[in-house]
Amino acid sequence: MTLKKNILALRQKKAIVEKGGGEKAIEKQVAMGKMTARERILSLLDADSFHEYDLFVEHEERNFGMDRKELPGDGVITGTGTINGAPVCIYAQDFTVMGGSLGLKHARKITKIMDHALKMKIPCIGINDSGGARIQEGIGALAGYGEIFYRNTMASGVIPQISVILGPCAGGAVYSPALTDFVFVVENISKMFITGPNVIETVLGEKISQEDLGGARVHAEITGNAHFYALSEMECLDQIKELISLIPHSNRQKAAHVEPKAPKFRKNIENIIPSDPKQPYDVREIIYALADDSKFLEVQELWAPNIVIGFGRLNGDTVGFVANQPLYLAGVLDCDASDKAARFIRYCDAFNIPIVTLEDMPGYLPGVDQEHAGVIRHGAKMLYAYSEATVPKITVILRKAYGGGYIAMNSRHLGADFMFAWPSAEIAVMGPEGAANIIFRKEIMEAEDEDAMRQQKVQEYIEKFANPYVAAAKGYIDAVIEPLETRELLLHALGVSKHKDDYRPIKKHGIPPF
Amino acid sequence: MAKKLKKENTEFTDFAVTARKYKTLLTKKYENRKVWTNPSPYLIQSYIPGTIIELFVKEGDIVKEGEQLLILEAMKMQNRVQMPFTAKIKKINIQVGDRIPKDTTLIELDPVE
Asked: Which DSSP state fits B42?
């Protein structure tokens, strides 16, 4: 009889805490167009798979009247569950409990679930919706943030870490997402900044809205802090599910193999690239034509769109695609594009995902703004990331491969395992016009008709050098292939490199050009 | 996601990379980039946003190198802005109390013979 009573008491106790901040606060949350923390977890995880930990944790702050304040779950829900059968650790800050503010116990619940994820070697997903540090707890809140950052760093490259920004995320709080692998944002809901509009207005007199300062679109398009951008919370949760299905549980595993499917993209791959090297096209069509089921999960679609990165499958196994995008800025490499690709390459390398590079780019972007923004340092990140990577590395040169960009885009010289080139490839030190101007400067200047001579020399250069055969003759290209053979050769290359074993000198860690 | 990029009805721009011009789209960030201009030594500019809390000179003054021009308070620090070389104050664009953004021209100088 007593046990029965105890069970009933437990159920009552749970029901109270599970309500979070209570009806009124929940109404407010809903009025803001947001789901509650618990709804978010339950919508993301498989039905009935969520198990909560630390439901009864309480804060210990005694100052500023906090001793009389009860905060259910201390403002954060933590636990484990599955997404399409894959186990994950998860936490969601509950904005209805004191604005989701982070106190020491709140942080300790998070660090506990992070430690758990790291030990169990499963992904950790954090849903952020918090006003920031709980000021009443003072330095205790700061300690909490620091302990989270430390674990983000320890877990980096070991287990996938995903941050979902579904509310404000300001001040120190933004650094945990920044340290994780993938950041998800939702239009009108996500807000991230170090100093908010109020501080900026007080100090500088500049008036700006939260949305314009650090809204979802800003981080998806301008800063590059966000990797996935959605128009609604439900779309965002679907994106997370798709990502989880494509990546391994930890760095000791490979991504799950699924039933291979032929591409369903209808366009003939031979007809995608215009024959004039100055004309653009959408390189994603090439990816659709190559990937299983023509499925491609693009990462950081809106930021630095001159390079395309993302996950797809070949023969049922996940690969990372890195492709120059001639549709934007002619597909040049610049600071942002290098940053974007380099980090993605390192992600793939850390998590045993082969990298397929599709190359069509005229080189690095010239300009004072680029040079002064440190294009040398940023550009070097790509060289570093490709050289360092030991996963299978395959390159297909579609069209232009000029100069430093040719080296950077996973060339043979940086350790590519397979180098394929289409017959349309132009592998040269620079574009024909530029090269002819330099090499034949004297002839052109001394000619009676300078323009005619320049044209003649450019034509000569195109015929002799703007092709894949000079590089193929030196063995820098393994094979010149027909576009229609590309998918088959990629599958072949991945099959051959299934047991690839590559070593790097023993070191504590390298010094990449951060 | 691919839908979100505006692709239809967009006109391609000529985009020069070394000696060749490519047809392509530009990004917002590229279009909004700051075009570099050669900085003039005769313009005293704010290197940090802040508030002018003191001004020591007036238009027409000849000020010697190293003398104080103004105090710019930023991030709770009072920064003394000094004269970079001896010159005449041609124009003062600010007053005490002004809150100014970065790279604002505060004072314009004229050379002295």
From this structure: T
Strand order in the sheet with B50-55: B77-82, B68-74, B50-55, B99-100
Record the tokens describing residue A200, joined without a space. Answer: 């900026």
Q: Are A152 and A126 in contact (CB under 8 A)?
A: no
Q: Do A331 and B1 touch (CB under 8 A)?
A: no
Are A89 and A177 members of one domain?
yes
Q: Do the domain assignments include residue A382?
A: yes
pLDDT digits (tens, 9 = 90+) for A8-34: 999 999 999 999 998 999 999 999 999
Structural domains in chain A (count) = 3
A471 and A461 in one domain? no
A100 touches chain B (CB under 8 A): no
Looking at the domain assignment, is residue A377 inside a domain?
Answer: yes
Closest-approach residue (CA) in chain A for B25: A328
User: How close is the nearest chain B Cα to the Cα of A13, in Å?
Assistant: 43
Do A94 and A235 belong together in one domain? yes
Question: By residue range, what is the domain housing residue A201?
Answer: 2-246
Regarding predicted confidence, which is higher, A418 or A67? Answer: A418
Chain segment A268-277, per-residue pLDDT in tens: 999 999 988 8
If phi over 0 gives left and psi between -120 and 50 gives alpha, with beta otherwise, what is residue A294? left
- Copy the structure tokens of residue B32: 């909004």
Q: Are residues A106 and A220 in the same domain?
A: yes
CB count in 10 Å sphere of residue A88? 25
CB neighbour burial string for A42-56, b if at least 16 within 10 angstroms, e if fewer:
bebbeeeebebebee
Partners of A339 on chain B (C-beta within 8 Å) are: none
* 3-state secondary structure (DSSP) of residue A303: coil
**Mutation target among B20, B31, B76, B95 for the A interface, most CBs of A within 10 A:** B20
Domains of chain B, first to last: 43-110 (2.40.50.100)
